[in-house]
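Shipment paperwork, digital attachment
Item: protein structure file
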Amino acid sequence: MNHRLPTYFVSHGGGPWPFMKEQYGDTYAVLEASLVDIRRQIGGVKPAAVLVVSGHWEEQELMLSSSSQPPMIYDYGGFPAHTYQIKYPAPGSPQLAQRAADLLAAAGHEVSLDPQRGFDHGTFSMLYPVYPQADVPVVQLSLKHGFDPLTHVKIGRALAPLRDEGVLIIGSGLSYHNLRQFGPEGRLASHQFDDWLQMVLKLPPSERTTALLHWGQAPYARNAHPREEHLLPLMVALGAAEAEDAACVYHEDEFFGHLAVSSFRFGEPVAA
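Attachment content:
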């Protein structure tokens, strides 16, 4: 792949939803279609690998999964028995893990490889619609504990060269993540915060970064993200394409009947 790939922040949905069509019906149909469309947006060509920054993995210092055959992590509770037998057998890529670690270390970040880390649902649930054959190598990158927005933008900046090497960078989280207010009581906060995100991401790049670094000042910010681990993957995706335009590639106003949720692409799609 000779084209620079865009980066993505995706709202990855709840738990193992792609494997629960019988229970959920068409609840996730719009999200699923947006994930499937990523293949078209990158020219219909498989990337060399996918680097996922998951909102479900945080460490004191950065870590990268480096197993050639990552196991599964069923990091959810209360779902049907079959969802604890799911396999997403995508290979890992020790080579990409090392390359990413080298880029991060060169930028001054403390980083280690984790040969035991498996795929959490922020990775396998989101990637299953994109690559259902699990035939693209996948590496996960943790968040850094403390959740400093600038640190995560800088992480994205350090990883930007991977885009020219055929690596698809995806930040996997949720644009609204307050599980205590995931019904009608979350409507106002999710819509107000989503409106702010949509506005900010249309700003010129330097203003956009500044605004996102101060996301806590946004309307209903802490209602939308009492704990920001599902927002920080956005900062990495932004940092890796910081000078490029953003586009909303998924949006619903009535997710689960009430919530506004969105996903974004940074950079231009790749012509087929």
